[in-house]
Specification:
two-stranded antiparallel sheet; 2 strands; transmembrane; transmembrane helix; single chain; membrane; elongated; 12 helices; mainly alpha
């Protein structure tokens, strides 16, 4: 039982480490899960991170356990990999992303992890008493480090993003995968039925504002699914500290429902939009989104979701102002 608990904690640590590595490696072509389908992918780099990352972690953990003579935890150490994959799959369903992930790629990655880790355990880990390197014969390790270094340098593919909110830059209009299109339209239909009338009253029946806010809800729910929002509501009852809550992720120092967050968020954004009407004629909707979250990638994600929605509406000509902003935003990017 103790060994199982240790293995579970090791798997959770691996999960967090892999996520951290992924976030730090995004500019090098690492595929970070998003509703935008970036084409700047380095497939070999992704394979190394996602497949060999857990295996390297497993070897390091075995070496540490051997060093501290905790051999009782080495039995069935491969369970760490099994638990890690299980955590990954559970997370996909908790975040409601089962319909939009690339299951073929996931199966390929996880099958590779299981196959290679099984071979490593049976042929290497289980037959070696001490995995720590022998520094008296370090030349092979040095050459290995050189190869890894050259690989990293050769595989570096940075994405160039503008520093300013609307600075012209070389990038692209991302591709929209069918599975993600279905996800966006399904969520749009659901949130329109649930929140449209609430938003419509506050926006004075401005369908362009309504659709933009629905797009924000889709993206916020994508990153903060119901289970996470439930945890946040429980947490604020304990901490009493201000945090972002609800499906629209608005700041509050008390627990609020998803509907309350939509009301608060819509009131704030509509107020900002009316102010923007006097200040800007070309970026009112983008400035409204920026008021909710100033991150450039966030603005692009919301506009991209909005474009997907409008492109599939029969009355898309009623969205001329919003669509012109979307076109202006993505015209700054070179389509590949």
């Amino acid at each position: 039982m103790v060994a199982t608990t240790i293995h579970l904690f090791m798997a959770l640590a691996l999960f967090l480490i892999q996520n951290w590595i992924g976030s730090k490696s995004y500019s090098r072509g690492y595929v970070k899960f998003s509703l935008l389908d970036d084409k700047d992918e380095a497939l070999s780099f992704n394979f190394v991170i996602k497949v060999f990352g857990p295996i390297v972690y497993l070897i390091i953990m075995v070496a540490i356990l051997q060093y501290f003579h905790c051999n009782q935890f080495l039995f069935n150490i491969i369970n760490v990999v099994y638990y890690y994959i299980l955590i990954r799959i559970i997370t996909i369903f908790l975040y409601e992303r089962s319909s939009i992930v690339n299951w073929w790629r996931i199966i390929f990655y996880y099958s590779s992890i299981l196959t290679i880790s099984s071979i490593i355990c049976s042929k290497f880990i289980n037959s070696v008493d001490n995995l720590l390197p022998d520094f008296s014969e370090i030349k092979n390790e040095i050459w290995l480090l050189i190869i890894i270094f050259l690989y990293q340098v050769g595989n570096r593919t940075e994405e160039i993003l503008p520093k300013e909110p609307y600075e012209t830059s070389r990038a692209y209009l991302p591709e929209l995968k069918q599975r993600k299109k279905r996800y966006i339209l399904k969520k749009y239909s659901h949130y329109k039925k649930e929140y449209w009338n609430i938003i419509d009253k506050i926006s004075n029946q401005n369908i362009q504002i309504n659709t933009t806010i629905i797009a924000i809800l889709i993206f916020e729910n994508f990153n903060r699914p119901p289970i996470i929002r439930f945890v946040e509501r429980c947490l604020i009852k304990i901490t009493k500290k201000e945090m972002t809550l609800g499906i629209m992720q608005v700041s509050s120092n008390r627990a609020i429902s998803d509907t309350q967050s939509v009301v608060i968020g819509t009131e704030n954004l509509c107020s900002k939009f009316r102010k923007n009407q006097k200040e800007s004629e070309t970026a009112r909707f983008r400035l409204m989104i920026k008021h909710h979250c100033p991150d450039r990638k966030y603005i692009r994600q919301v506009l991209f979701i909005t474009k997907c929605i409008i492109d599939n509406l029969d009355n898309r000509y009623d969205y001329s102002d919003l669509y012109s902003e979307i076109e202006h935003e993505f015209e700054l990017y070179e389509t590949i």
